[in-house]
Amino acid sequence: QVQLVEAGGGLVQAGGSLSLSCALSGGSFSSYIMGWFRRAPGKERELVSAIARSGANTHYGDSVKGRFTISRDNAKNLLYLQMNSLKPEDTAVYYCAAKRDDYSSSIYYTGSSAYEHWGQGTQVTVSS
C-alpha cells in the first residue's frame, strides 16, 4: 500500500520561502511520476509542478514559474518543493501525488486524474 506523507508547511510572510517534502512508502519511489498540487479555499485543485521519474524533466504551473523548484531524491524516496518569493495567493493546502509508470523515466503528467496516490496535504499560509 503506497502512502505519501507531506511535511514542511507553515506560516510565512510574503516574500519568504518554505520547503516542502513528501515521503513515499510502500513502493519503489523511482517507479513513480510525482507531482505537487494545491487547493486554495473556494478554488479548484491546481497543478503546481510535476517531475518525471528520472528527475530530468519538470513542469510548472504558470503561477509558480520562476519561484518554485521541484526536485526528487530517488535514493531517499523523497520529493521536494522549494518555494521562494511566496505570495498571499500561494496560500493553500499542498498535496503530493504519485503515479506508477513502468515505461518511461522522462515523462510527467499534469492532470490530477492521472495520479493514483495522494498525500493528506500540508497547509501553507502566506501573510501579507
In short:
This protein is mainly beta. The chain has strands at 3-7, 10-13, 18-25, 32-39, 46-51, 58-60, 68-73, 78-83, 92-100, 117-118, 122-127.
- Report the biggest beta sheet as strand number plus sense, adding barrel if it closes: 7 strands, mixed
Shape: globular
Indicate the proportion of strand residues: over 45%
**Structural class per helix/strand content?**
mainly beta
CA-based gyration radius: 14 Å
Q: Poorly predicted ranges (pLDDT <50, ≥5 residues)?
A: none
End-to-end span in angstroms? Answer: 40 Å
Mean residue pLDDT: 97
- Seen as an oligomer or otherwise, the chain set is single chain
Helix % is under 10%
Helix run count: 0
SSE pattern, N- to C-terminal: EEEEEEEEEEE
Number of strands: 11
Explain the overall architecture.
By secondary structure, the protein is mostly beta strands. The chain contains no helices and 11 strands. The chain has strands at residues 3-7, 10-13, 18-25, 32-39, 46-51, 58-60, 68-73, 78-83, 92-100, 117-118, 122-127. The strands form 2 sheets. Strands 2, 4, 5, 6, 9, 10 and 11 form a 7-stranded mixed sheet that branches. A 4-stranded antiparallel sheet has the order 1-3-8-7, with no helix packed on it. Strand 4 (32-39) and strand 5 (46-51) form a beta hairpin. The mean pLDDT is 97.
Give the SSE layout:
Blueprint: E1 3-7, E2 10-13, E3 18-25, E4 32-39, E5 46-51, E6 58-60, E7 68-73, E8 78-83, E9 92-100, E10 117-118, E11 122-127
Parallel strand pairs: 2-11
Antiparallel strand pairs: 1-3, 3-8, 4-5, 4-9, 5-6, 7-8, 9-10, 9-11
